[in-house]
Amino acid sequence: MTPTERTLARLPAHLRRYVVSQDYASYTPRDQAVWRHILRQLRGQIAGKAHPIYLEGLEATGIGTERIPSLDEMNEQLAKLGWGAVSVRGFIPPAVFTELQSLGVLAIAADIRTHEHIQYTPAPDIVHESAGHAPIIANARYAEYLKRCGLVGFKAISTVEDEAVFQAIRNLSVVKEDPSATPEQIHHAEARLDAANQSRRYVSESTRASRLYWWTAEYGLIGSLDSPRIYGAGLLSSIGEARHCLTSEVKKVPLSLQCADTEYDITRMQPQLFVARDFEHLFEVLEEFEATLAWKRGGDYGLQEALRAGTVNHLVLADGREVTARVAEMLPGLHPVAEGLSTALVRLDGPVLVSREGKAEGKPWPGLALVAFGAGALPDQGPFQLELASGLKLQGFAAGGGEVLNLRGQLDGRPVALPSVAQLFLTSHLPSVAGGPADPGTWDRWFGELNAFTEGEGEAQARAKKASALHPSLAALYREVRAQRESKSLDVRRLEQISRAASDFPEDWLLRTEIDELKAARA
Fold this sequence. Notes:
Keywords: Iron, Metal-binding, Monooxygenase, Oxidoreductase. Its cofactor is Fe(2+). InterPro entries: ArAA_hydroxylase, ArAA_hydroxylase_sf, Aro-AA_hydroxylase_C_sf, Aromatic-AA_hydroxylase_C. Helix content is 43%, strand content 19%. The protein is built from 21 helices and 17 strands. Strand 14 and strand 15 form a beta hairpin. Helix 6 (94-102) crosses helix 8. The mean pLDDT is 90.
């Protein structure tokens, strides 16, 4: 079993299906030149600017300068740090990315940017994911922060609008990396993203979590305000950003919870960056952020967040059961039920899945479900009458397994409209309401909602177009220059001939740069 196969084997099935083969042979000679050009420049300008662990981490995680790293090489090194990496195509759903990270697995975009976007690309690529994220993992404390940050993002509640924004961002990145894309297609993709952003009714927990991640793990600085170092992967993997971020043109502010409420634009260099005192400072802000989430707060706050999100989330009951469904309606009670909870009853739209510690218990319930708050218990079978602390009175017939028939309710002497058949859950309080299904794998198998994601089809097509756009004669010249570099026996006369032949491709500056570097090294 290869190192990559060992990493893949420890993932649950619902995550494994997002993984693709790196297909190392499909990297073109120009792709290899793009990697080498970026890594040489980054190494040259990062020295003295990055956190000290960065250059050490490049070696520790199997990332060299001369060629694109293979996932097997990376996994062999990452395993020593308790981490792994898998190959994916472009943008994957945020819940998948964050769950992978919480498990100590980096999602490495298999594709690499074009030479036109060599300074910076908004699309995920192997430069950003491997040369940016992986090296800092060599610091154990920071590696733990990445896992915790992934868990927080996974538990945050997202909205239906968040999904629209994700699809629009993914589409824009594919279009911009497609060499055959027309100006009209690019304009449409940009307009789609703008419309998706404008459709947001409010800033969701998931959006705030992504901002915190952006301003720390992606675009974070560390140290003093006057002389910070770079640790964010987005800065470390971008020649343009790494050069720009420490100049006086970029405002530096102390890291605080304000970062979760600060928007960012992935299509341009950032005008302001947050500076962490040290890696412990990251945990301080993360814990402060966690305390704001429905995952930690539960109660009425958590229910309201799930209700307005309109997405599938899960309620954690007092006995540890996790009820996955969409919160459809909240009925306020006459009296508080518990601290932070005055709701008497919640209606859940089916399907409903019950789990415990992330493992499903039985089959999903296809219909409506109700969660009633207050001390009490249903009989296994037979008629029942309940009077709960909220003032809600319920009666009906327990059919077994939580199913109730002929259900009726009263609150303050007035009847409450209830379904005649439902799944009924009773709980004394509500410790947590968290994003997504509690058991994503089982939910996915039954309902296939997560299958709406097409596994990198657009990104794979863009990659194929990019490869076919490389003229065979130009590819042959790249291969010959690379062969001379690897042989360490330079034929300057032949390099001159290749340089003249490259003039047939005036827009391809990278090959000429490669030749000039070799000639300069010989001189």
